TrEMBL record:
Residues 5-139 form the Endoribonuclease L-PSP/chorismate mutase-like domain. This is Enamine deaminase RidA, house cleaning of reactive enamine intermediates, YjgF/YER057c/UK114 family. InterPro entries: Endoribo_LPSP/chorism_mut-like, RutC-like_sf. The lineage of its organism: Bacteria, Pseudomonadati, Pseudomonadota, Alphaproteobacteria, Rhodobacterales. Gene3D superfamilies: RutC-like (3.30.1330.40). It comes from Gemmobacter aquatilis. SUPFAM superfamilies: YjgF-like.
Amino acid sequence: MTIDARLAELGITLPDAPAPAANYVPFVLVGNLLHISGQISANADGMVKGKLGADFSVEQGAEAAKCCAISLLAQAKKACGGDLARIKRLVKLVGFVNSTADFTDQPKVINGASDLMVAVLGDAGRHARSAVSAASLPFGVAVEIEAIFELA
């Protein structure tokens, strides 16, 4: 099954790739590795803002991470000229969770993105990963995630 078909099966329509919020590019292709800048938690209603351990449950944080994963796929699609079939595998995700000092479930939050990538890419979506706490994130968002994809 193609990536586009899997997205459709999951009821996901990729948005336009978000524009950078500062002085950086949304992605860089080096050889066959596509590095995608951090994508913040946002959905059709706007930015998902808040702090895990104070404002959000782990499940709500995982949904915010899933939003980041959707933006990562939108950036990958743009980088691939609209052809998601060029994605060979997801190499790595680095997730940042806006969380209180005593919150320790960052991995469960970032699972929202990891689970989506495996659902969309199958075994090619299994990846190396970091999930870390941040005292704050840009614009007060709950989650930010960056990615590295290998392209065919």
